[in-house]
Please model this.
Amino acid sequence: MTYLAKPQLHYPALPVNRLGYTRRDYEGSVSTLCAGCGHDSISAAIVQACFELDIEPHKVAKLSGIGCSSKTPTYFLGNSHGFNSVHGRMPSVATGAALANRELIYLGVSGDGDSASIGLGQFAHCMRRAVNMVYIVENNGVYGLTKGQFSATADKGSKSKRGAVNADAPIDMVMLALQLGATFVARGFSGDKTQLVPLVKGALLHRGAAFIDVISPCVAFNNHPGSTKSYDYVREHNEAVNRLDFVSPRKEITAEYAPGTVEEVVQHDGVAIRLRKLHSDFDAHNRIAAMNYLQERAAAGEIVTGLLFEEPHPEDLHARLNTVEVPLNRLGDGELVPGPEALERVNDAYR
Amino acid sequence: MKPTDIAAPGYFHKVVDCQWACPAHTPVPEYIRLIAAGRYSDAYMVNWESNVFPGILGRTCDRPCEPACRRGRVEKDPVAICRLKRVAADYKDDIRSRLPKIPAHKNGRHIALVGAGPASLTVACDLAPLGYEIAIYDGDRRAGGMMRSQIPKFRLPEEVLDEEVGYILDMGLECRFGAPVESMKALLAQGYDAIFVGCGAPRGRDLDIPGRRESAANIHIGIDWLASVSFGHVNSIGRRVVVLGGGNTAMDCCRSSRRLGADEVSVVVRSGFEEMKASPWEKEDAMNEGIPILNYMVPKAFAHDAGRLTGVVFEKVRAEYDAKGKRRLLPTGEPEILMACDDVLVAVGQENAFPWIERDCGIEFDQWGLPRLDPATLQSSLPQVFFGGDAAFGPRNIITAVAHGHDAAVSIDRYLHREDPRERPLPKVVQVSQKMGIHEWSYDNEVSMDRRYRVPTQDRRVALKDIRVEVEIGFDRELALAEAERCLNCDVQTVFTGKLCIECDACVDICPMDCITFTHNGEEEDLRARLRAPAPNRAQDLCVSDLLKTGRVMVKDEDVCLHCGLCAERCPTGAWDMQKVLIDMTHAGPGCRSREPRRRAA
Model:
């Protein structure tokens, strides 16, 4: 950790976004995580994504559980809402908050301990209920806060810092999310922000359950030879299936691609996501094929990254429950106390 | 780009903008840290070894360091480097015991210094401790040169001047003051082993326009008039004064006039206000004393009546620039302006004059009447004669004269040891890691957000009454500490070791200035454009690492780095380290000959 706050001085010609904010305006307090922690890079990617999407900080709610990863919301979006919940219970709090006020952007940040162990059930129900949120798991395969025991996502056969070999099968959060019906599923790597920032932006624009598994090396306890979540191992085995580019409606498209390799998906607010295929046999809009592909490549020892599945017309919890458009805190007496006539109508329906 | 050789002499020196810009290469951040630590005497000695006149320069320096200061690029105003130098001088203890000892046993070499200004005194300061026997000549009765004759007392009190000039005169110099050297040939005939000419640029330019001769009694040459004031020969002036010229001499003339009884003083310049040669702060000081500066007015004639000056006639002009950017002043056609006045001070420049050097004595001069010199060694065409200060290349400033003095002393020392003066000694560089713990450094890496502090000044009514009352009071200790904290410690360098780097991006994420980029290599032009923050300032280098594991390179733009050390604090492997690089110019002595270190790092 660092004792000093990051100096307020910044690059003199730092660009501003449509709201007049610089990227620095989206930062939070200085990180207290270990130096070199992958989580800090993810925080930086979130900062960059929110800056580039011109997101108003007060329109974001950051939610987290317990763990190194769950500390990170303090280190980005210092002017947004935040809720640091109980271990593994972030999804419930996020579900409740999303139901109460559908106008905010919900950004859940969790870790492999918080979401794959104690909170696995919570995670599963949040995905299957299609809560409109971004769910980021900062996945390092160890319990960093308790000195590096294997977590539930540690690969079978991978070695701990002290040489112990993990005998248990790993939980693959991406496979779970796909199976449970998440409508935006991606995997990124904290050491590759050019890939990660567009994934976070895509997830923020998605109107449904968006899940990103970000492999984030723990420099203190899981960055050694024998680890499958170290910087070196991930770089060697990383197979990116595609790249996301963002095409702002204000900018002219100039780049040219070979036919059949690029597909554009226009989002609800006019921003187009351009998906550049790196593997011709991979289709990011076919859930079953994606699951097969992932299983195959995982068996071959590859770590597949990129946008793995996206449902272009997602449905979320509000649509399923037919909830009211207005946030609950803005409902007045008129809506909340409809009077005896309304009660009478309801009762009549059962007579 | 090729990997940067950070061990190359000059690479890190250039990053310390202030030290790089200083002609004498004073280690500025080093002494500012000492001031912050309350070690004023140590700060003074760091200065003294480098620029010889900290108390004088702390009041009068042209401060080339300040426009160069990084703070001006990343915040707004530079650190008040010059006035902090004065703080070191103001609050130091008696430092006489720390001055070099003068050996009783001399080395048998005799040196003559012509002129007792800053250049000659610096030569003496460097050579006397080595055992040289030095005779110093000056036409004035007291040493100091233009520091005494031209800089008014309200900017530089006599005690400060006497003290610092005294340190050098006390080094056992043979002082021959009060009679100018009349002949170089006669001097050469005395058999000195080396002669250093530091006689300044003693001739003020005149303005030969109609009426000059008729009203001569009330038209004075600026530098001569200032000298007369300084030595007490002149102590009054007319009520209305016009000062012609836009340099620092003009500023000293107008402010001196205000103190000698003039209540209507104007400065009039030919060119625009912005193009004036005077330092911005000197213009500001003059205007604060109620002196207007009128621009784009060309003097056409002195008006006079019955042998008495009555005013100056000006023509209004405007500036026009041709395709090459060359400026011409064209009359606007407006009617001429008559400014009524009682006295005129002409401060339109000064030039060199060497009437005492016979043109057939072996010293060659160029078409402008300046001696032909090797610019590095300052040696003339007569090998035992060296020049420095304003006498070398025309009027500059005190700090340049000091730098010349050091350079000439090295040349003389090498020359008299039968070594080629053209081989210049490299500076001594000491590089030490500042790491004390995971996030503890032996320098204060917190960046102050304070704006530049103003130096307290004397009440104007008091200041204008007496020419001997110093206008600037100087920083007190608290203000000095706050101002010192603004220094970014640019001499504490970010040193990157590529083979330790795991490319985790921690430094990139924490850097407040977005200086650091990991990317594939390219040509400089290309790299500068596609860094995380573009690096358009070509005057500042890019630091490029060796190829890293992923095939990329680390590129750091030195331009706006705050030297806050956060990259090193957030680095998990120690690939970044903060190392103090203390650059010490090698002065005359065994070090300049055998390149042995002369002094240990502080």
In short: The first strand of chain A starts at residue 60 and ends at 64. The CA atoms of residues 199 and 244 of chain A lie 7 Å apart. Chain A has one domain: 23-321.
